[in-house]
Amino acid sequence: MKIIILGLLFLIIVSLFVALYTLVKDRGQSNRTVRALTMRVALSILLILILLISYKAGLIHPNYSPFDYKNKSALEHGK
User: Fold this and answer.
1) pLDDT tens, residue order, the chain (79 aa)
2) Rounded to an integer, what distance in angstroms lies between the CA atom of residue 26 and that of residue 73?
3) Taking the domains of the chain in order of start, what are their residue ranges?
4) Distance of alpha carbon 5 from its chain centroid, rounded?
5) Can you tell me whether residue 68 is helix, strand or coil?
6) Where would you tag: which of 36, 42, 47, 62 has the fewest CB atoms within 10 A of its CB?
7) Cα-Cα-Cα-Cα dihedral of 22, 38, 40, 17, to 10°?
């Protein structure tokens, strides 16, 4: 699961730099920048959906804050 998440984050960053490159190279005269940014948004939505589904399926768990003293007893007992 970590590899999928890291791969999507990498693709999102690459898409952002592709959009920057095409914006500078084409000087805003083509639709390549728009397509790259659209791909970045689509990949971001996919990443969010994968994270939500993984959380609901129990594949990933949130890290609780060590400063959350209200839930300290629940954390010690593994709840």
Assistant:
1) 889 999 999 999 999 999 999 989 888 778 888 999 999 999 999 999 999 999 999 998 887 776 666 655 555 555 5
2) 58
3) 2-76
4) 7
5) coil
6) 62
7) 10
d(CA 12, CA 40) in angstroms, rounded, equals: 5
Query: Of 75, 14, 12, 66, nearest to 44 (Cα)?
Result: 12
Q: Which two tokens stand for residue 14?
A: 């690459």
Six-digit token string for 44: 């971001």
Residue pLDDT, tens place only, 54-65: 999 999 888 777
Q: What is the DSSP letter of 71?
A: G
Tokens matching residue 27: 């000087």
What is the spatial distance between Cα 44 and Cα 34, in angstroms, rounded to a whole number? Answer: 15
Q: Enter the pTM of the model.
A: 0.73
Residue 25 structure tokens: 């190279």
